[in-house]
Amino acid sequence: MSHRGKKTQTNDQPKGEHCFRHWVESRDLRDDSVRTLPVTAYQNIFFGGKKNTPERPPEQVIRVEDVGRVWEAPNLEDLSRQLREQYSDGAFQRTLKRERDFKTEERRRTALNELIQILA
Known about the structure:
flat; 120 residues
């Protein structure tokens, strides 16, 4: 997918700070209809609780939402398996898509600059 319109891309950010929007396209091969399923990722961080409780490492979770249904998995392989159960290979074509999200990058940059001003 391309970024059209006014050129807002800047190369001043390190590659690791780029923000992307992800989604799964599920194409029904019977009628060629396409469903767009948003993908989000987050990390659960566990803070120490009781004194003798062992520390737990952070858990990464990938989440895909469809109308009335949510899939969560710790990795892409498990997520693919779950989606394959709902959208079988013979009837559907599933594709993971992404595009750079320039608006989110700008919001993040603005928020960090404002935080720096507050802390200064």
